[in-house]
Amino acid sequence: MSHQNRTEINKLGEFGLIDKIAEKFSKQNNSTKYAIGDDAAVIDVGDYFQLVSTDMLIEGVHFDLSYFPLHHLGFKAVAVNVSDIAAMNGIAEQITVSIALSNRFSFEAIDAFYEGVKAACDAYKVDLVGGDTTASPSGLMISVTAIGKVDKDKISYRSGAKVNDIVCVTGDLGGAYMGLQVLEREKQVYLENPDMQPQLDKYQYIVGRQLKPEARMDLVHELLDLKIVPTSMIDISDGLASELHHIAKHSDVGINVHEDKLPFATNTQETALEFKLDPNTAILNGGEDYELLFTISQEEFEKVKNHPDIHFIGYINEKSSGLNLVTTKGNPIPLKAQGWDHFS
Amino acid sequence: MSHQNRTEINKLGEFGLIDKIAEKFSKQNNSTKYAIGDDAAVIDVGDYFQLVSTDMLIEGVHFDLSYFPLHHLGFKAVAVNVSDIAAMNGIAEQITVSIALSNRFSFEAIDAFYEGVKAACDAYKVDLVGGDTTASPSGLMISVTAIGKVDKDKISYRSGAKVNDIVCVTGDLGGAYMGLQVLEREKQVYLENPDMQPQLDKYQYIVGRQLKPEARMDLVHELLDLKIVPTSMIDISDGLASELHHIAKHSDVGINVHEDKLPFATNTQETALEFKLDPNTAILNGGEDYELLFTISQEEFEKVKNHPDIHFIGYINEKSSGLNLVTTKGNPIPLKAQGWDHFS
């Protein structure tokens, strides 16, 4: 470690840092099918592929306990990792949950957290198989690893999208981000006047999207039943635009998505307008919805065209055409990824 | 979360907390062979068992960067998890490494950390397959998950020790603990007088035991070659006495270990005496040596009796006889586990 040269992490950004780290390492074991660069690592265990994904949640960076109940946090910590396994078209079966906590936390607080973990384990049929519990100098840190499985002929990478494939997205977007804005505002109001009670009734849907996101395992099971293997897939943790960039980069393609096809809830739109925000900002760049973004070949369209919760937002093009948002007026404008980068 | 009842975590201790958490959860998937309670979780992937272990390392709790070089820390973070896989008689093949770091850390510092991770990956033939990189409000937190494999007929649990089995330990004990005492003392000297340079030459062996522990994969491979499957095994992370308690509890047996058989390095003994500590305190209760403690049936003894690095320290007895240290004078005294508990 040389103190003569100092490169700030935020100059590289999270993805730049990951690239720098990844280029150091090479594969040594045949069982390692795919390492860094997708939603989960892929291990060949013989009969099938095993998927491994891991995420850290840090107090003061990823969550604020002044409005995030611990049992919701436990649920979310599991759900976001199950979502990464879903993004490979896989089914999570095991998780490990590690926590580091300061003496500010009582056993009852930790118990509430694990009640949430258990609710998610039950909801997604996942077994808690291990973890580490330790002290921290301050705050709460959570690290979850999810392990899942997928048949070798059913795995979806980010890299498989082909020209003319249809771009699909589940659910609605931007809600978790707007929910966070509401929670942050109510926190400020409360700090300025502790007699004020938070006014959240009107924002129930979007606050729920932030505090209790669901992994879309239901869609993974439905696609299995319909015998559809997405040509590419990713979950929307950092925002639609950022995830589209990942698909375009890994699949070496261009993508056009249509503004008028982007799904959002009325509650999201109304709240964005109340906050004097363009709803598209929340829809394209708001993170943490944990919906699935995937591509299917044209032949599969008939099977899902009437699905109430799958939205067809665009097409895969040649790489040269780039990544564009086609506005309601029909103009393609280049789409920038303004995903969440905790280092910037 | 009720604030009426508040139970402090340190009243439960780490193992008490883990027990309370574990009793909440039950198994839902057939692939989950063994969950919480051993060095690693066990997943049945068909042809073999897969092992999963995870550990968190928190700045200010597990390491002090004022004397712990980042590349050593990267090596150690991997080694301690590979050691958990070794403790199940398995071979680690993949790891994930997650880090949360404050803006105090430059890219060059993180690069040094990952150089250490890479050195360990090369040493243990393990592939880095994923991880998470994120910001932290202060300090460095590391979470590593190791994934390994073991043939179904070769796995060693904590629970398999049988009466008359021989208790074995590799390497020497207490060194990492005494190395830590030296490093902490030199830090104090430096803080009081920054012109003083640390005097570490005399303590090179024990300081190395603290800063660069090795997972005993060499022993796992040797036992495989000798066709010996330990009847029980655990790695020594919390101290010999604590690990013996785990074996006794899980195997439902008693254990006698003999004071005059406990292996230690001269450097450990001399430094303990210099610190006015009973060397047995370091040997029995000092953690972080990452040696292997295991039991073998009497029939296997011939195969290893001349092994230079395996020490035969005692025997498995009926449960009723308890866990005892037989002193040099031949007196059995009950052995208390004073392992490291970061909550107390």
UniProtKB/TrEMBL annotation, chains A, B:
UniProt name for this protein: Thiamine-monophosphate kinase
Catalytic activity: thiamine phosphate + ATP = thiamine diphosphate + ADP
Gene3D superfamilies in alphabetical order: PurM-like C-terminal domain, PurM-like, N-terminal domain
InterPro entries: PurM-like_C_dom, PurM-like_C_sf, PurM-like_N, PurM-like_N_sf, ThiL-like
Organism taxonomic ancestry: Bacteria, Pseudomonadati, Bacteroidota, Cytophagia, Cytophagales
GO molecular function annotations of the record: ATP binding; magnesium ion binding; thiamine-phosphate kinase activity
Record-listed E.C. numbers: 2.7.4.16
Family according to the record: Belongs to the thiamine-monophosphate kinase family.
Note: Reaction mechanism of ThiL seems to utilize a direct, inline transfer of the gamma-phosphate of ATP to TMP rather than a phosphorylated enzyme intermediate.
Residues binding substrate: 62, 288, 340
Membrane-traversing stretches: none
NCBIfam families membership: thiL
Any one GO biological process: thiamine biosynthetic process
Keywords from the UniProt entry: ATP-binding, Kinase, Magnesium, Metal-binding, Nucleotide-binding, Thiamine biosynthesis, Transferase
Record CDD domains: ThiL
Class of enzymatic activity (EC top level): transferase
Ranges of residues in domain PurM-like C-terminal: 165-301
Annotated residues for binding of Mg(2+) 1: 54-55, 132
Residues that hold Mg(2+) 5 according to the record: 238
Residues given in the record as Mg(2+) 4 binding sites: 39, 53, 84
SUPFAM superfamilies named among the record's database cross-references: PurM C-terminal domain-like (SSF56042), PurM N-terminal domain-like (SSF55326)
Binding site for Mg(2+) 2: 55, 84
